[in-house]
Design goal:
Length: about 200
């Protein structure tokens, strides 16, 4: 049974997200993922992993990613879709999420991911990835916290996708530097508020 106060905060969070989602306009897959997450059955403010049904995510499965924080505080890729492998030219599952991140942005992104788990809240970031052919590909991730099970470790669940207008060359060049240039980010309240970043990107 959901407490009335918790339900009220969640409804406010949904309304706030819908008002802000258009500025800047989210990538289509980020919007789909956020809508899906807000409609999942929750235990308190967060859903459990078992509530996720892959059959409801057919159009998003290639871009799906799950991040888990290890004992050292680093974020490892627990699961990633084939679309992410194709986008990056590498298989990221089991590896550190920020292994290829630009050094000047790595600590900031690590801090933002930590905040999204601690608050907890959603995190949406738009950025450019640098490829070996010199191109910058505009990319966006949308990550939301979920529980593995009741009272267990939270992980970040979401999508990573390139802008719809980005043309994919063949053969696909390899990712050289991820998060080469951060364009913007926003925390998304899930009913418990959002952190205040120490500084802006």
């Amino acid at each position: 049974m959901i407490e009335k106060e918790t339900f009220g905060r969640r409804q406010q969070a949904i309304e706030q997200f819908r008002r802000s989602a258009g500025s800047p306009e989210l990538f289509g897959k980020s919007q789909q993922l956020a809508d899906y997450w807000f409609n999942l059955k929750k235990s308190g403010l967060l859903p459990e992993k078992k509530t996720i049904n892959p059959r409801d995510l057919q159009s998003l499965l290639p871009q799906i990613v799950m991040l888990e924080r290890d004992e050292a505080g680093l974020f490892k890729v627990r699961l990633s879709g084939t679309g992410i492998t194709e986008l990056w030219g590498i298989e990221p599952t089991g590896k550190e999420f920020l292994a290829h991140a630009a050094l000047q942005n790595r600590d900031k992104i690590q801090s933002l991911l930590q905040s999204a788990l601690q608050q907890p809240c959603g995190l949406i970031m738009r950025y450019d990835d640098l490829y070996t052919d010199g191109r910058l590909i505009q990319t966006e991730f949308a990550l939301f916290p979920i529980r593995m099970s009741a009272n267990q470790t939270q992980i970040l669940f979401g999508v990573i996708s390139a802008a719809d207008h980005e043309e994919q060359s063949w053969p696909q060049p390899l990712l050289a530097t991820a998060f080469y240039r951060i364009k913007n980010f926003q925390f998304v309240s899930v009913g418990g508020g959002t952190p205040t970043p120490a500084d802006d990107c």
